[in-house]
Design goal:
One of its GO terms (cellular component) is basement membrane. Its main location: secreted. It is found in: Secreted. This is Netrin-1. β25 and β26 (about 430) form a beta hairpin. Among the domains are: about 55-280, Jelly Rolls (Sandwich); about 405-445, no CATH class; about 475-530 and about 540-595, Beta Barrel (OB fold (Dihydrolipoamide Acetyltransferase, E2P)), CATH 2.40.50. Strands 1, 2, 5, 6, 7, 8, 9, 10, 11 and 12 form a ten-stranded mixed β-sheet that branches. It contains nine helices and 36 strands. About 15% of the residues lie in helices and about 30% in strands. The radius of gyration is 47 Å and the shape is elongated. With about 600 residues, it is α+β, with helices and mostly antiparallel strands.
Amino acid sequence: MPQVLKGFLIFLCILQLCLVPQRWKSNTNLVAAQRGLSEDPCYDAKQRPRYCIPEFFDLALGREVQASGTCGKVPQKLCSYQDPANVTSKRCHICDQSHARTSYPSAYLTDADAQTCWKSDAGVKFPKNVTLTLSLGRRFELVYLSLRFCSPRPESMVMYKSMDHGRTWTPIQYYSTQCRRVYGLPAAAIITKAMEHEASCTDYQTGLKPLTGGLVAFMPLAGRPSARRFEYSPVLQDWVTATDVRVVFSRLHAGRELGMRRKTTFYGVSELQVGGRCKCNGHASRCAATPEGLTCECQHHTTGLNCDRCKAFYHDRPWQRATPSNAHECVACECNLHSHRCRFSMELYVLSGRRSGGICTGCRHNTAGRHCHYCKQGYKRDPGKAITSRRACRPCQCHPVGAISAMCNQTTGQCQCKMGVTGLTCNRCALGFQQSRSAYMPCVRIPEVTTTADSPLVWNTGTECQTYCKPSRGKVHMNLRKYCTKDYVLRAQIVAMEKSGEWCEFTASVSTVYRQRRVPIRRGDQPLWVPEQDLACACLRLQVGRSYLVIANDEQSPDPSRLVLDRNSLALPWRDAWAYKLRRFQQQHRRGKCKDA
């Protein structure tokens, strides 16, 4: 008992401190001003964020309390005893709600007047309960809950809290002279760390004496092993959080304890106090009244009713409750002044070693990337301006014909040029190439001069070539018989040409194979070999950048895997009208028509 009494005296000292927060705050501000410290407790003198909490006050003061039973709806007689040893000390009076002088409403519980008193109906008997319910309006962290009685204290009672505005209730403390019999719990059990979030039962503060003025007080953190490290214990933070509190009086003291025949038949409470502070999660030092109720004045770039989330654009780190060792300030995303919006990615945060997880959204000024730190497609960096400048990215200005796309190198600004095209913006032909009239191949290689022993031969159509082959004129009458006599028929575009001894190697991009050879021809880029003499005598006319219908046999090819065109082959400039006829020949071939041709 001495240990319990010592603990309660400490509680009373704390309670006195709770009742004078304004003077304590004034003195603290005075000392801070004298030392030149920051006026905002959430920041130190160097404006570095630090843990801060709002001051606590009586949450019940002036609030309405819902009582399940109040005397005087029908005038009734209430009696009390001034001295338990003296039967003649009995005093009786009338409770009648129709007269102010004889009514005892629940408003007296929170009017800060110790002389007024709420009284329940007379004739209350076990197991009938009487309930007092107080709605706090928002989430608070409870510091204490106390009741001052103007009748004998109950023999058994329970304190509850709700975290969801009264939808569900959790017991936080049981009081009874018979804990195990009434509530099935041991009396004065030691609270272990595993049961910090569970209610216990005590027979302390349940005695009959005093007959009036008795106190029942509860401190949610008292006796909890982690109380000294409350700010690091999510379990205790949840334990003290409440939106509503409720007190249930379960059992009166029997009259035989008074040595009297009659039993005590009503409960009377002169004062209900709920000490607490706004739940601001260590990010606010003030809780101000607004039309919506008490609201935390959030600091550290937090927002929300309980400062429970980061403000817009401050999502580079995840929100956390502040602690005395770390304020866990919300940090702005790094968007290089090109965006005011961002989102948080836990995956990136973990990959960065828990340093940064913000992703900028809606990058402006032609920028892109997680931090709006590079130029978007079609733009290049201006080396003369900082990345934070609105003009840090300039258009690539790639030539619409000479460039493959509008994209360019972010650093050098070099556009991706087509074959034979050069320049920063792909605006001129490279050395050895000349301009053509084709938008697909704007620059073609200048034809090389082929020579014999004495004189050059360039597209020679003289008598020497006339005996070698019949020059191609680009005219041919295609029929099924000619189609069937050839080893392969395909459509290809000449992409490039390179001389190799007496042969010219063309790079042909095969798009369609209408007749397949024994060694299959695949679509895509394929090497195409042509004897140099066949080109010199114009047996075949091939130009880089143009598409052709190629009709040939494999008999001149020294290697079955290579495509070889010679004077007996055909390479005709492609006409779209041929596609339908070739598809028809292809179908007839599959039906076996080539055997009959």
